Amino acid sequence: MKDKDTFLQNAGINTRLSHIGYSPLDFHGFVNPPVVHASTVLFPNARVMETHDQKYTYGTRGTPTTDALCEAMDALEGSAGTVIVPSGLAAVTVPFLAYLSAGDHALIVDSVYGPTRFFCDTMLKRLGVEVDYYDPLAGAGIEQLFKPNTRLVHTEAPGSNTFEMQDIPAISAAAHRHGCVVTMDNTWATPLYFKPLDHGVDVSIHAVTKYPAGHSDIVMGTVSANETHWQRLLDAHGQLGICGAPDDAYQVLRGLRTMGVRLERHQESALEIARWLESREEVARVLHPALPSFPSHEIWKRDFKGSSGIFSFVLAVDRAEKFKVKAHAFLDALRIFGLGYSWGGFESLALQVNLNDRRVAKAPTEGPVIRLQIGLEDVADIKADIEKGFAAVKEV
């Protein structure tokens, strides 16, 4: 298997996705890993029980099924280790709890995932951690925001809902000069289109609910750390007793096998829709980092290998009091698009974005922001559905 591992390091991404994380020869040749359900693990004798001198000791510390997913993520991330948690939000909060203590200060990007902000403003505040939000476009200018007690910088690129790009290498370099750990929510790009640890990030976070699982039926997160920060993450994971279920890990690993081809389709369709929306009079702006018109497009072009299927646009509405009614008219007219949270599945989804919690990165003023997840449906049908939405907007 070492020959195979060496070969896979230089293989194409779809080849790697088809083979990483599990060797069929480890279990009688069966192609997919078995689902191992476990709480109690038995020991052969008292000495091994005392010393824990065996690979598996208890269900919360991993099983062959969850290990297969962790190994696959390590192969994609280039990380020293990965832990599995029950949700994407837990994938953010567990490292926060691992690396932050009472009296510490954290810098959180202002375009952060909404539930992450809520955790910072409630749980972290109650635990005595000071939080400041910074402009996603700060880049190297973030250096001015560090305090003597700053311990963590959290990044997300592109940003939730408005898709601002961050200069991750510059931010990471500044953070490391101040002795800070850098975490990144990389759910949008996946490790296929951006590898955070290669750009200075210490801890890469994914809601594998999204593209790795790919079918809108699994909730799970992964956290992958470099060598310097891996042990502390692993310790916190064990201390908190937070683990992912083997059935879900199996489903995510199975979804991972086709993520490359699915992402290609998501990317292609989303870009076609985004370019089309730019030409529409009903649209004030399209918020997609892979478009040359997007303000931080050059950062995306420099650092990222691709784009995924989620972006936003600003509906052109001339009066603020009409924002909600026009947005609701658009959404309610859609038939292919479902109205739902999350993304990364096979179906298209839409919602109106709420940006009222922003502190620094203000919301667009030209109209309501509509977020689209472009699924695997035919582009012509997606466009026709959006046309229905635009027609409904004109009637209110």
Automatic annotation (TrEMBL):
<dbReference type="GO" id="GO:0019450">
    <property type="term" value="P:L-cysteine catabolic process to pyruvate"/>
</dbReference>
<dbReference type="Pfam" id="PF01053">
    <property type="entry name" value="Cys_Met_Meta_PP"/>
</dbReference>
<comment type="similarity">
    <text>Belongs to the trans-sulfuration enzymes family.</text>
</comment>
<dbReference type="InterPro" id="IPR000277">
    <property type="entry name" value="Cys/Met-Metab_PyrdxlP-dep_enz"/>
</dbReference>
<dbReference type="InterPro" id="IPR006233">
    <property type="entry name" value="Cys_b_lyase_bac"/>
</dbReference>
<feature type="modified residue" description="N6-(pyridoxal phosphate)lysine">
    <location>
        <position position="210"/>
    </location>
</feature>
<dbReference type="GO" id="GO:0047804">
    <property type="term" value="F:cysteine-S-conjugate beta-lyase activity"/>
</dbReference>
<dbReference type="InterPro" id="IPR015422">
    <property type="entry name" value="PyrdxlP-dep_Trfase_small"/>
</dbReference>
<dbReference type="GO" id="GO:0030170">
    <property type="term" value="F:pyridoxal phosphate binding"/>
</dbReference>
<dbReference type="InterPro" id="IPR015421">
    <property type="entry name" value="PyrdxlP-dep_Trfase_major"/>
</dbReference>
<protein>
    <submittedName>
        <fullName>Cystathionine beta-lyase</fullName>
    </submittedName>
</protein>
<dbReference type="GO" id="GO:0019346">
    <property type="term" value="P:transsulfuration"/>
</dbReference>
<keyword id="KW-0456">Lyase</keyword>
<dbReference type="InterPro" id="IPR015424">
    <property type="entry name" value="PyrdxlP-dep_Trfase"/>
</dbReference>
<keyword id="KW-0663">Pyridoxal phosphate</keyword>
